[in-house]
Amino acid sequence: MSGTELTLTLSGATAADARAVVRVLEPSFGSPEEELPADDRVTVHTARFAHDPAATPPSAAPTAGGRLSGAVTVTVQGAPEAVAKAHDALTHAFTAQDQGAVSGDQEQERQLLLEP
Known about the structure:
The protein is an alpha+beta fold. The protein is globular. It has helices at 15-29, 80-93, and strands spanning 4-11, 44-51, 72-78, 95-103, 108-115. Strands 2-1-3-5-4 form a five-stranded antiparallel sheet, with helices on one face.
């Protein structure tokens, strides 16, 4: 399946935290479809990636994450392959606690707590 969308929702994050998390996913998923808000008064950030597994180089190594200002709850939603790839990248880049996953027919949702 090509052209699958991955949705990333971050809560409790500053704009800098959101950018740090998105940068970790960009080597595997490319740039998000829209720019993240730069306003630190926003506490929930959403990024959507148009994930095409055929276009992603298989050797895209996970990127080290930047420092987070505090704990950030991250929810990733999309095709199981995309969610697994995002989960692997985020747990490699940050100290993370897996907070559960829910699977549907063609989608999966996984929640992580990223810690500074």
